[in-house]
Design goal:
alpha/beta; 5-stranded parallel β-sheet; 8 helices; 9% strand
């Protein structure tokens, strides 16, 4: 049985991330932009050291797997999926397959009410008339949100609550996550007793975030913010 010794840790004890401090992380976070019209600023953004890949469309949802941040156009995207909802359908499928990705919808059009559920699944919706400065700010914000340890846990917690994880379990999981982040360790690993009590989809998400914080340098970034 898993017990918390002493007062449980909470995400309020984690430092917040200042986007300006993450310039050196731009290359470490791959970003996919799906837009059938391409992106005029692609090369310029790469010169700004953003790790961006622009594609006109994707053939399957697995194409976005290695990209923690995905920006998807709505019109003219998703031809292989044969959905009249185009990019809105793609957005929904990405969220189902990869619930922890930072997802941005890209559109300048007004859409019927039936499309609003797709936009609600996104972390952000922006227009297509963005200047270079707008793009830089958008990508910096997305990277900061993805790497922010407290923000990531809030997203995970919301997913877990929607998948019938109890408040007691959430408390224990948050304690384990915060303690690991503050000490520079991987928070969740296969074989953890606490994970074995969870539904399979919840377990998979926690194992994935455990891998992410190790691979993407979120732990290292947290320790830097703490001055360690």
């Amino acid at each position: 049985m898993f017990h918390i010794i002493g007062k449980p840790k909470a995400i309020g004890e984690l430092p917040t991330v200042d986007p300006a401090s993450l310039r050196n992380m731009r290359q470490s976070v791959p970003i996919m932009i799906i837009d059938d019209e391409g992106l005029a600023f692609e090369t310029v953004l790469q010169r700004h050291e953003f790790h961006v890949t622009v594609v006109p469309d994707i053939e399957d949802i697995a194409a976005v797997e290695r990209y923690p941040i995905v920006i998807c156009d709505i019109r003219g995207v998703g031809a292989k999926f044969h959905s009249p909802r185009e990019g809105a359908h793609v957005v929904e499928e990405i969220r189902k397959a990869y619930p922890m990705k930072y997802l941005i919808a890209l559109t300048s059009q007004k859409w019927p009410a039936s499309f609003q559920r797709s936009f609600a699944l996104c972390d952000k919706t922006v227009g297509k008339d963005l200047t270079l400065d707008d793009w830089v700010r958008l990508l910096e914000e997305a990277i900061a949100m993805y790497l922010d340890p407290a923000g990531r846990w809030k997203k995970v917690r919301s997913f877990l609550m929607c998948n019938n994880v109890s408040i007691v379990q959430l408390l224990k999981l948050e304690d384990q996550y915060v303690r690991a982040m503050l000490s520079g360790k991987r928070p969740f690993q296969r074989g953890d007793q606490l994970l074995e009590l969870l539904p399979s989809n919840a377990k998979d998400v926690l194992l994935a975030i455990g891998k992410d914080v190790l691979v993407k340098g979120i732990v290292e970034g947290t320790l830097t913010l703490l001055g360690k």
